[in-house]
Amino acid sequence: MAARRSTSFVRAAAWPAAVATVIFAVHLPSFFHRLLDGDEAIYGTVAVLMNMGGELYGSGGVDNKPPGVFWVYALTFRAFGAYDMAAVHAVGFLAMAATCALIFLLARHLASARIALLAALFYGILTAAGNPRLLASNTEVFMMLPLTASVLLTLRRRWFWSALLLVAAGLFRQSAAVNVVVVGLGILWLEEPARRWRAAQIAVAGVVAGLIGGALLIALTGSLPGFWRWTIATLVGYASTNWTPAFVWMRAKDSIAPFLVDMAVFWIAAVALATRWRTLAVEVRLMAVWLVVAMIGSLAGGHLSWHYFIQAMGPLAVLAALAFHRFRLRKLATAAAIAGIAIPVFAWWAFDITADPLTYDFATPPRHEAVSAYIAAHTSPADRIFVWGDWPALYVESDRLMASRFPGFLRGFARGSDVPPNNWDTAPDVWPLLQSDLAANPPTLIVDTSAADWSDFAKYPMSDYPVLASMVAGHYHEVATIDGVVIYARNAS
Fold first, then answer.
1. Where along the chain do its domains lie?
2. Confidence of residue 454 (pLDDT cuts 50, 70, 90)
3. What span, in angstroms and rounded, lies between the C-alpha atoms of 4 and 1?
4. Cα dihedral sign for 346, 347, 350, 353?
């Protein structure tokens, strides 16, 4: 009897172990590079300033993202050391793995443990099968943990906690707010008519509690006025700039098209299931709604980077798994589906390990590492530097502090286009703040990436910006040019 129980336990544990192994394997490239994305460099540089006592959205760093990701990076650096990106990647992987576990619980609520394992596997694959930015410890991967928990609790009709976790997800990314539709429809579809008003009141209480808690945390770690200025007031302008036709087309080719084509097996399965709307259980219909609103949230900003679609990968994984449960495929169709998933996964896995995540080049060593090596060799850890352009990775790779609160400029902007460079991070109130920062923390080196046209920055030379032009002309001299990047050192006193 004991032997049978032992064998039964091993068999029951074998499939979860296999799924976990596959998920870890496809995410392995995230541990091969120090930085997987320029956004990671932004979060890292800001987090280091925060840990030195600076206020988020103030002297401790400015960005248009909500505070959650900066809190995660700052806490990780406090535990493992400044700019320890390996630790950050481990935390990001754990957040993704925990979301897989929630996807499992959600799909098991809808179907069976076998289908739930398939859904968890699909989410793990979807979040890895793409360019290196998809693997980064970005806002979306952290947002999906509380967002998926919110959906699970919606299915369980735990309205206060579902709404509270929805707000928690919004502390990582503003687009999480679209899931209020899922909570609202959950109340409408899952509650008896006599209980709907009470359920709505409980959900509102959860939202209010979440907003109050979030505001208190921001007040403790940063600036509430700065939060409003940089993360709320900038949204309309940021989105309108991104929705220019040329920029949308460029991003669509790099993100939407491969996301739909490479992961076509998942989309075909999910859409096929959704077309059976009338025969679907109410809870499964809610998953289809979740996918629709998640895609709207992914597209809303117009930036259309691949990692934005992580928001849609949770419901896509659930619906695809349910579809494979509902539709019985012949062996040939099953083999084709497996091949349709495996081939893109292996191709991206090889690319993500071998290519430089910041440039997608295969040059060894990458050019930006040569610039970072020069900075590290000609400064001390106590020195601050200033990078003109959109290359905060140079701060991380050289292990040096920013001299200003701005990690980069014209971020998310259609650089190189004919659009006037009136971005949220080049607004009129930016320049007095920048001037004040550089006066308080005179940079030992100024690194001009526009001279090399890194990230299409050639149209924005420092000479066009009076704060920088006067500072360089009066207090700095050119000391090196590396791959076209011009480096200036402060004049001797």
1. 2-354, 367-490
2. very high
3. 5
4. negative
